[in-house]
Amino acid sequence: xxxxxxxxxxxxxxxxxxxxxxxxxxxxxxxxxxxxxxxxxxxxxxxxxxxxxxxxxxxxxxxxxxxxxxxxxxxxxxxxxxxxxxxxxxxxxxxxxxxxxxxxxxxxxxxxxxxxxxxxxxxxxxxxxxxxxxxxxxxxxxxxxxxxxxxxxxxxxxxxxxxxxxxxxxxxxxxxxxxxxxxxxxxxxxxxxxxxxxxxxxxxxxxxxxxxxxxxxxxxxxxxxxxxxxxxxxxxxxxxxxxxxxxxxxxxxxxxxxxxxxxxxxx
Length: 267
Known about the structure:
Blueprint: H1 16-22, E1 27-32, H2 38-45, E2 59-64, H3 67-78, E3 88-90, E4 95-97, E5 103-108, E6 125-129, H4 136-141, E7 155-160, H5 167-173, H6 175-178, E8 192-198, E9 204-209, E10 217-224, H7 230-233, H8 236-243, H9 247-255
Parallel strand pairs: 1-7, 1-10, 2-5, 2-6, 6-7
Antiparallel strand pairs: 3-4, 4-5, 8-9, 8-10
């Protein structure tokens, strides 16, 4: 039975959110400023392959660094979205199970070694909310859990603001889009293809290669700001809260500035 669209159904905002949700590449980063609709984008993108016949062969994982962060953001918001699709929530497993058997699971990896609790698991989608709160080791380890025996396209998605402990590694990984000094700049929203090459020792470097190169994965960054989210942009109280922040935090959260750093006169 085809479900009739309802006037209150969730729809992506035109612009960055729509662009992010249209991506088919392996890896993508979304956001850069507060209020850009990052959490909603991850929650909706995680169910892209729900209802397409994959059944229990589709399993998505959505992560925050700590459980309290997870509970007050992604889990709370999911209760406003997923039940309308007939999903049932398993409180013990922190999973939504959809009518066809597809699963969206919530998790957290507060300690560095917590990623190993997913050893042996199989996911087709892993989404990191506020990815700069994770370490690079945690982020890359979850790549090893992405596989599919039913042909589901595997994807990694992340959303974040600048700052936090993982700022530098995220900036470096997406430097082609974020670093104005990058030797290989890429336009926002355009997919570039990366292939790792193993040098002497343990150093792992990447080259930008042509699409279709063996073992290369597509990656991109889609920026979004408060003005890209009409639901919040008209909330002047929220905008005023951002304006009241210190110069560094305000530049990061309001403007999505990845380059500003604390210095004399900037606290």
